[in-house]
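[job 0417] fold request received: Helix-turn-helix transcriptional regulator
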Amino acid sequence: MAATSTHLEVPTDGLDRSACLGPDGSSELVSGVIGMIDGRWKLAILFRLFERPSWRTLELKRDLAGISQKVLTQQLRELEADRLIDRFDLGDKLPHVEYRLSRAGAELLPVLRSMRIFAALHQGNSIA
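[job 0417] inference complete; emitting structure tokens
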């Protein structure tokens, strides 16, 4: 009987498993993406940017009830460092900064929509 695998990238013939487990494997790459969106407010920020093309910092602060300015700034900087959003300084005399989804951030939308569908289908169910 042939060995089976529930992971499409894991060879079942005992050969090279780096496609899944190595430093450039599926597990490491997916963990990296999860790290990019991990944080109490990052998904909320991203979903707002999916909804509307650009937001000013103060608009985000008003819309995200309970977030402090310090945490908002930190989360925005991390999302920018991970290249999921772009920061545009449009300041004339007064500071005017807007945030928009980057190309990579826009490419993440279908993944997050799929995760939302999965969550809705399995809400309250144990996924073992």
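[job 0417] notes: The two ends are 25 Å apart (CA to CA). The beta strands are 54-56, 85-89, 97-101.
[job 0417] exit 0
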